[in-house]
Amino acid sequence: MATPAIGQPAPDFTLPGLTLTGEEATRSEFTLSAERGHPVVLAFYPGDNTPVCTKQMCSYAAGIEVFRDLGALVWGISPQGLDSHEAFARSYSLSFPLLADTDRKAVKQYGISLPGLGLRRSVFLVDAEGVLRWKQVGLIGVTYSDVETIAKQLAQF
Fold first, then answer.
1. CA gap 129, 101 in Å, rounded
2. What is the C-alpha separation between 28 and 103, in angstroms, rounded?
3. What is the reported pLDDT for 143?
4. Where are the beta strands (DSSP E) in the chain?
5. Which of 17, 37, 87, 88 has minimal CB crowding within 10 Å?
6. What span, in angstroms and rounded, lies between the C-alpha atoms of 60 and 68?
7. How far apart are CA 18 and CA 34, in angstroms?
8. What is the pTM of this model?
9. Whole-angstrom Cα distance, residue 29 to residue 15?
10. What angle do CA 37, 89, 77 make, to 5 degrees?
11. Residues 6+ apart with CB under 8 A from 54
């Protein structure tokens, strides 16, 4: 399945996730279409507590104010369950939601499934109307879009 086209509605999904606020982890459902009114950064990553994923998620946590200043939410999405996400969030003080796509439903909807490895590291930017405005899909997944690159794209819509 191909990735969704720029300018098209972003595929909607609902996934369980958690948000760490201080010491409290709040688990809830996250639905993309419920976030209309502001942009959402969908950061798909292969796995909790792996070197590149940890570096990527920590960089987004360090730059969270940049995203907030642009009115955007950041969601980290990977195939691990909520217990793994909670341990990961606590280990690195990740304060944005981590969503559990354990059956890879969203991964398939976004066309980033990678047989044997799970998924291609990818970032999709969804605008306030739910339209896909930018995407970066990794071939192997050893690099990722940095905060500055994502912020530059967000500032355009």
1. 23
2. 17
3. 84
4. 14-21, 24-31, 40-44, 73-78, 98-100, 113-114, 118-119, 122-126, 132-137
5. 37
6. 11
7. 16
8. 0.96
9. 6
10. 50
11. 88, 92
Nearest to 157 by CA among 33, 34, 38: 38
Only one residue has tokens 């990553």, namely 45
**Residues labelled catalytic:** 53
Q: Give CA 104 to chain center in angstroms.
A: 13
In angstroms, rounded to a whole number, what is the distance separating the alpha carbons of residues 82 and 58?
18
Residue with tokens 């798909």, as numbered in its chain: 44
Amino acid at position 13, single letter: F
| pLDDT band for position 40 (cuts 50, 70, 90) | very high
Q: Coil, strand, or helix at residue 62?
A: helix
Closest CA to 114 of 44, 64, 66: 44
Q: pLDDT, tens digit, for every residue of 99-142?
A: 999 999 999 999 999 887 789 999 999 999 999 999 999 877 67
The residue length of the chain stands at: 157
